[in-house]
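Repro case for the chain-ordering regression, as requested:
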Amino acid sequence: MAYSDKVVDHYNNPRNVGTLDKSSTEVGTGLVGAPECGDVMRLQIRVNPETQVIEEAKFKTFGCGSAIASSSLATEWIKGRTVNDALEIKNTDIVKELSLPPVKIHCSVLAEDAIRAAIGDWKKKNSVAETSAVAAEAK
Amino acid sequence: MSTVTSQIEVPAGVTLPIYMDNHATSPLDSRVLEAMMPFLTNKFGNAASRNHSFGWEAEQAVEAAREQIAKLIGATAKEIIFTSGATESNNLAIKGIAEMYRERGNHIITQVTEHKAVLDTCKRLEKYGYRVTYLPVKADGLIDIEDLKRAIDDKTILVSIMYANNEIGVIQPIREIGKLCHEKGILFHTDAVQAVGKVPVNVIEDNIDVLSLSGHKIYGPKGVGALYVRRRNPRVQIAAQIDGGGHERGMRSGTLNVPGIVGLGAACEIARTEMDTEAAYLRGLRDRLQKQLESELDYIHINGSMEHRLPGNLNVSFVYVEGESLLMGINDVAVSSGSACTSATLEPSYVLKALGLGDDVAHSSIRFGLGRFNTQAEVDYVAAKVIDIVKKLRELSPLYEMVKEGIDLTKIEWQAH
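-- result from build under test --
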């Protein structure tokens, strides 16, 4: 299978690989996919509580080159956006940017899911933290 | 910034890309090409032309090739039928026997890790009223002979079990299977495409009645194969699946592919005389590769029996790394993966699944197929490169990180998609 130059670039030089402290209230973690399906993405964001801007984004992905590229690109795109802005990113934007073939569209869907899951986790954590002061728990 | 690009130095004498996918196909041996050349040029006769020298020299060459092939598998020349390759041989054997012995019974036994050329042929026969039993395999890839015994009934006409598997290289207990079939008066067919020329195959000692083989897996040309059909004890009859001029004792019509057949013959001759040294050489390379991988990487899983296995095969799962992403990192090395992402169906290898491996382990598998022209320097380069890329991809793998932290991945509620 031929990969687009952008997929190859993200595969060779993945952006924002890493791990954030999932116990921090500023951090949201999204873990999507399943090992038996051949792809698992973990996307993490650190959000500024004042501005709701995503100041840091990190990922780790088990999956094919397109899955790695999709999640790498997702971290690039969400960094610097507010959480609500980041939710505007659609999988079709990723497909377009990376020129993913039809069989790889699920990789982009997974990346969109990962963004939503990370933001969802952060939102959940922070409403919990605001109302009850119980230590938030990440997955 | 982390990077997946590998910086492994290419040793002297190694040219990229390296071909290490010899179960898929093998390069043509120059000696085989040399034997074929006259029949691709001035010796163009039709082997069925009986009344001029062009036909005679073609026929002579075909008969010489028949001898060479027969000799490699302990058969006689008259028992060799030429086909277009192993897919056709498997179709002809199974459909031809099913049709010919229909009055005696309608039950066929095969097993789950067969090549699709056998499985899909059996599936088609099921539509026509045949019953097919697909035996399971054990974790090492071998069938249990007791399962076979239990599956046989008074309607069983044919057992079709492959000699060696194309993905995991596992060699089935052929001799025992053949013996059991002969005791029960059931015909035994084996798809021996991966085994012929690699390990000793003898149709008499192994109790084989019908055997499929192919040219391009043994450094011969593509588009030519053969079917061994036993003539004595028992005399096997096969209904032709291609009608026409009645070539090949009426079992397979069609003008013979003379250059291909000459090439197949030459390939068999070379395999017969060089098998012992080549097998020892390949086993050495394979063991070296395995040792290097195992010494540098944790969480690696060898798929299939190491004891009953082709010398040139190594099938490894690099757990927590997805196979296609690994192939992408070693793109100057030709190997294959059981990952779903590399298949058209998006299903991981049914062979690896049949071993009872989880889909996640199947997704992480790489098949190394070592062959005649691979060198030790190539093995060392491939091992270093694979180790390098696996380590880098594991830095990227959330699963590897979680396992290292002591998290039990089976306890997580994954959202399958």
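Ordering looks correct now. The beta strands of chain A are 27-34, 39-47, 54-62.
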